[in-house]
Amino acid sequence: MRAPLTAIAGLAALAALSSGCGDPRRADVQVFWTFAGQTCQQAGVDVVQVDIANELLTPNRFFCTDPTDGSLRVGVDLGAFLLGTYDLTLTGFDAGGAILYRSSRQFTVQGDTELHVDLQPAAAGTISLNWTFGGLTCAQAGVTSVRMSVDGGLITDQSGSVDVACSAGGIDGTSISPLAPGTHRIDLVGVRGAQPSYWLPNRQVNVVSGASTSVLVDLPVGQPTFATADVSWDALASGGGFALGSLGAMTCAEAQVDVVQIALDPNLDGTGGIFAGEVACNTNDVEGAQVSPIPAGTHTFAISGIRGSTVVYQTLHPASARFEVGLLSNVDVDADPVGSGLGSATLSWDFGTASPVCPVTYTLTEPSGTQRPAVNLPCGSPTTVTVPNDFSGLWGIDATAGAFQAHILFAVPNQTTASWIIPFSK
Predict the structure, then answer these.
(1) Is 208 a residue whose pLDDT tops 60?
(2) Do 190 and 148 touch, CB atoms closer than 8 A?
(3) Is 23 exposed, middle or buried (0-12, 13-18, 19+ CB in 10 A)?
């Protein structure tokens, strides 16, 4: 996981502790989460929802990244509970609201309780899609095939063609699976006489875990003339980002990028191409942009990451995607450090409410995956260390101090410095 991480985000206590002699006993409950062994960032989880049967938790939804300071939540303090047995459900949602992970378990409060829950992937669902065209059947409308994209991914038939038969086995429609539970975007184009003739963009469909969702769509007459690219450099939710290495890529905040310029069909080294727009690197927690019009066919994209007025990251290996008229296609783009390619980071130990523990032994892993020799800091050493003038990108740190441990990622931005809190836990 990545620094900075916070101390556990506090939840409003469900009931205040009291010292009254006749009061029933209560104890504190804390919940920590991982997702199939990963942090929420590594698993692409944006929001974690905590539910306890017959208990009202306010709030019960928590951003993986704390919106107030950008730190990473690893759990929550649920406050004080009466002694007894409870049923807990944790759900992990992606940024689009789709359910990625879910796990339930029972726990008993006999004293202060610390729960560690490793959420498992939620069962996939299916969309059973039936269609009409201006109220007409496939035969009546003369539509021979339908082209579709789901969440920016082109749908193909078993032969790999984007032209899915309009009618098969007497059914005007098709099934799409597997899909994560939650809301999905579907774009559809009805083809008649080899020409796009009916068009329904951005149809929202909710998929239920482990079930088939039946959806009837009616495509109105429409002749789309261009495609749309959903260009993403989101290091947490896509394969893009800045200074991609063996441990992943940096986000806009980690890379300290303000503005991104997008180029369409650049040269093989990422230079040149057609200017396709300039946007804020992060807009309302979206690290990407939609670009149109895009002609049908295969196209490539590159980005430049700008801090102030200086380009500090540039795509060296453009990303490509196939585009179909009327549909949305995803493109995940990364950008490498330019110039020196070096930066610095200051790491500060955090033991929460516990007193600092020593000695501290830590090992750093470079963005390339190379692990450096362990460093031992005896008692009396400073509680901060510096990674000076070193490789830009995501680094890993594994540290131990007595019974405390820290295993997280931190970022070294290109041509500048950053400071990170390294939290230790038992």
Answers:
(1) yes
(2) no
(3) exposed
